[in-house]
Design a protein that fits this description.
The protein is α+β, with helices and mostly antiparallel strands. The protein has a five-stranded antiparallel β-sheet with strand order 1-2-3-5-4, with no helix packed on it. Strands 6-8-9 form a three-stranded antiparallel β-sheet. It has a two-stranded antiparallel ribbon with strand order 7-10. It is globular and about 60 Å long. The protein is built from twelve helices and ten strands. The longest helix has 22 residues. Helix 4 packs parallel to helix 10 and helix 8 runs parallel beside helix 12.
């Protein structure tokens, strides 16, 4: 590790470098110098992120843009340059490394401990939308092509059905049919984008509470982290994935579907936080279609889980047999619960946008 961190402009002699964090894709280390000064060192997984240069160009562009407009350095991730002044390190072996300033006096929660925690998560991602509302989203690289292209996810799903690589189709035909019954809705948001009725935005694309840094004393959001999937998208994508993850009453892989529903209390908490931070920067159509973001992001994620199950569990990490199938079923249960609560979801939006 010394061969890596010694190539960055660190403040002081390094006295400790230890693995930290629970991420499943990148590797993260906490680096401590004798000053003392703390840094976050990360190796970026090139097998997942094929365009490392494009990914890091996005991170540089967004973080530079934010720091030019913010007074508090804790309000955005800050890259530490290499000894040669580059924002990241590419090794001869093709590995990509970066260093961030450690965000002091902050905390990151593994799960919401209250509706207020989820509201603050909504504030954080709403702030992100607000801060980047004038950023030219189209200049960013699409680091994972068609990432939130729900119709394309259905195209891949149909390919998996036709191929039936793992021989599992017959046993899950009912699940497949229920997902296919929703396919006609997959293009709702993209159709609005094509017609120019909603704008392209800078989106985070992984709007979980675990990607929010909160002030340790006040529990107010400081900034969002894990910017590897920042790219052009729709505000409803970020909002919708926040609801999918945060407003569910059960774990993503809960086998007992009776425990799975979308909590209207948590839905309203996240929505209130999100719109309080960026509601005046979104168009009326964007706000009115936010419930579609929640439904389609949940539907899309479920399609991806079921696709992977049909393919033999080759993409998402699994720790037990049938885990991807359970994940697909929880997502569809959430979609169906949203449909039952559709009027209430829209009523919340109508009330909070005023």
């Amino acid at each position: 590790m010394e061969q890596i961190y010694s190539q960055f402009r660190l403040d002081g002699r390094v006295i400790n470098c230890t693995r930290t964090g629970g991420g499943h894709i990148n590797r993260t280390y906490l680096v401590v110098t004798a000053r003392p000064h703390l840094y976050i060192l990360q190796w970026i997984n090139g097998s997942i992120f094929k365009n490392l240069t494009g990914l890091m160009s996005n991170v540089v562009a967004v973080t530079d843009y934010l720091h030019a407009r913010l007074d508090d350095p804790r309000r955005a991730l800050k890259l530490v340059p290499t000894l040669t002044g580059e924002p990241y390190l590419l090794t001869g072996e093709g590995d990509c490394w970066r260093v961030y300033e450690y965000i002091t006096d902050s905390v990151c929660l593994d799960a919401a401990e209250s509706a207020e925690d989820l509201r603050q998560s909504g504030v954080a991602f709403g702030m992100f939308q607000n801060q980047l509302a004038d950023f030219p989203a189209a200049t960013l690289t699409e680091t994972i092509p068609h990432f939130h292209d729900t119709p394309d996810r259905y195209r891949i799903f149909r390919e998996a059905i036709a191929e039936d690589r793992a021989g599992r189709l017959a046993s899950v035909q009912g699940d497949v049919d229920r997902y296919l019954a929703h396919e006609a809705e997959a293009d709702v948001l993209h159709a609005l984008l094509r017609k120019g009725e909603i704008p392209l935005r800078v989106t985070h694309n992984d709007t979980k509470l675990t990607n929010v840094m909160l002030d340790e004393a006040t529990r107010e959001p400081l900034c969002v982290i894990d910017l590897d999937t920042v790219m052009p998208g729709l505000a409803a994508h970020d909002y919708g994935d926040g609801i999918r993850f945060g407003a569910s009453t059960a774990a993503e892989d809960e086998p007992d579907l009776s425990k799975v529903e979308m909590s209207l209390e948590l839905y309203e908490a996240f929505t209130e936080g999100f719109l309080s931070a960026c509601g005046d920067r979104l168009t009326e159509t964007e706000i009115d279609t936010l419930p579609w973001g929640a439904k389609l992001m949940t539907l899309e994620c479920g399609v991806r889980f079921l696709t992977d199950y049909l393919n033999g569990d080759v993409y998402f990490a699994t720790h037990r047999p049938g885990q991807n199938l359970d994940r697909a079923r929880t997502q569809l249960k959430l979609v169906e619960d949203m449909e039952k609560k559709w009027d209430e979801m829209n009523a919340v939006i109508a009330r909070l946008k005023k």
